[in-house]
């Protein structure tokens, strides 16, 4: 799961160097290195689930890591920005296997609140990685070249191939193997689309993913080149915000079994929207340039709160789809990623030298997510249950 995050976040410090190397006039264009990766990441998810439902989780994940490694090699050899963007798409195609299959493996082995607890621990890895990824990227740059950032990704892929190949057994029960056929896939997709809980929580998750992607896409400009000019301290600021998310997922894993997924995620989302409105107010009060400490405090609070919603929404979406976990995880991952990448692009591309686009994006997408959850639960928010 951490491959996804490290492939985005450790490249952020290299944006200015890549801009200079390829003569990119508009700094906002560098955000494409994030969003084209997410497009490849989203599109490939629709494939991994059905294939893993037929052939098993283990071999498909190993193949996906090989594709990811090929994308790293192509990026290291990129003679142009267009080539680099194409390599990022291929990286995304490979990294998608980890996103789909890690959640499918969890669903293979766990259910209900126990699944939510395990999912939170996995999401904690996904969210803690950004604490160290920019520092790794900065360290690679210090060695002399932006190419070394992709070397670090390639080394990670190699370690994972060895580790996963040696330690992870096949988790798909033989009785749940499904034929790889269009009618079978279509049946699974229809079931997913007709399941109100799955579609509703996946949509809310996609909107919240858009918040995260909008922030990540513009973080380098906000903290470094466009607003606060932190320079070498950029990884520290980025890591502090990511740390709030990691702490929240750890808390979520400990309390979700007692409070339930719905109660915890609905409360987290409602509080997130409230703090997002505060974030907008702070931005307006300081003409879009609040003091760094104040901005970091409000932003970290929002990242903390969003982490009570996202892992639980993921678990709630998959909960009723256990027999088609691979295909369901694949489709829902595709849907949430593409929706999140699109919304994130709108936020990131709106960067105007102020913090206002991030605050407005959080408030708008968070409010819309809350409405979607209310529709999903037929207006009965904060309602627990035997499994949720």
Automatic annotation (TrEMBL):
Pfam families: MFS_1 (PF07690). It is a multi-pass membrane protein. Keywords: Membrane, Transmembrane, Transmembrane helix, Transport. Gene3D superfamilies: Multidrug resistance protein D. One of its GO terms (molecular function) is transmembrane transporter activity. The keyword Membrane applies. GO terms for biological process: xenobiotic detoxification by transmembrane export across the plasma membrane. GO terms for cellular component: plasma membrane. It comes from Methylobacterium planeticum. The keyword Membrane applies. The chain crosses the membrane at residues 30-48, 60-79, 118-140, 146-166, 197-216, 228-251, 263-286, 292-310, 331-351, 357-376. InterPro entries: MFS, MFS_dom, MFS_trans_sf. It comes from the Bacteria. The lineage of its organism: Bacteria, Pseudomonadati, Pseudomonadota, Alphaproteobacteria, Hyphomicrobiales. This is Multidrug effflux MFS transporter. Residues 1-378 form the Major facilitator superfamily (MFS) profile domain. It is found in: Membrane. SUPFAM superfamilies: MFS general substrate transporter.
């Amino acid at each position: 799961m951490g491959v996804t995050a490290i492939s985005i976040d450790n490249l952020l410090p290299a944006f200015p160097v890549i801009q200079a190397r390829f003569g990119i006039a508009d700094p906002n264009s560098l955000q494409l290195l994030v969003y084209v990766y997410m497009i490849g990441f989203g599109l490939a998810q629709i494939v991994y689930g059905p294939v893993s439902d037929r052939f098993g989780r283990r071999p498909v994940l190993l193949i996906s890591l090989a594709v990811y490694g090929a994308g790293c090699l192509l990026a290291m050899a990129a003679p142009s920005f267009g080539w680099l963007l194409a390599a990022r798409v291929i990286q995304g195609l490979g990294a998608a296997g980890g996103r789909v299959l890690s959640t499918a493996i969890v669903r293979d082995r766990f259910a209900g609140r126990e699944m939510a607890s395990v999912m939170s621990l996995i999401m904690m890895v996904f969210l803690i990685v950004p604490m160290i990824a920019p520092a790794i990227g900065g360290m690679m740059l210090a060695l002399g070249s932006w190419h070394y950032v992709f070397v670090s990704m390639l080394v990670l892929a190699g370690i994972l191939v060895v580790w996963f190949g040696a330690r992870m057994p096949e988790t798909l029960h033989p009785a749940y193997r499904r034929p790889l056929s269009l009618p079978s896939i279509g049946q699974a997709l229809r079931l997913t689309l007709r399941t109100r809980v799955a579609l509703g929580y996946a949509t809310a998750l996609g909107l919240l993913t858009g918040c995260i992607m909008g922030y990540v896409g513009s973080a380098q400009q906000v903290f470094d080149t466009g607003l606060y000019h932190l320079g070498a301290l950029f990884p520290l600021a980025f890591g502090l915000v990511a740390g709030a998310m990691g702490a929240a997922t750890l808390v979520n894993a400990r309390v979700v079994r007692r409070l339930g997924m719905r109660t915890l995620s609905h409360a987290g989302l409602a509080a997130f929207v409230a703090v997002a409105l505060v974030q907008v107010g702070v931005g307006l009060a300081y003409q879009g340039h609040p003091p760094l400490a104040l901005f970091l405090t409000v932003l970290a609070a929002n990242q903390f709160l969003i982490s009570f919603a996202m892992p639980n929404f993921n678990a709630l979406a998959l909960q009723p789809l256990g027999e088609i976990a691979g295909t369901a995880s694949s489709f829902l991952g595709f849907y949430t990623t593409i929706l999140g990448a699109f919304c994130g692009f709108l936020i990131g591309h709106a960067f105007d030298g102020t913090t206002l686009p991030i605050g407005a994006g959080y408030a708008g997408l968070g409010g819309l997510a809350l409405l979607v959850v209310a529709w999903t639960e037929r207006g009965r928010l904060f309602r627990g249950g035997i499994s949720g």
